[in-house]
Amino acid sequence: MGLFNKLLGNASEVSVEKLTEKYQRLLSDTEYIQNTFLVTP
Asked: What is the mean pLDDT of the chain?
């Protein structure tokens, strides 16, 4: 996970449900959000 941590830095997981609600209009019928991360510097 060392490379993953270096790429994302200080990342925390974000609720998939909240982002799906927020961006539903951008997703087609066959698309869905699987993993979400909030990256802070």
From this structure: 79
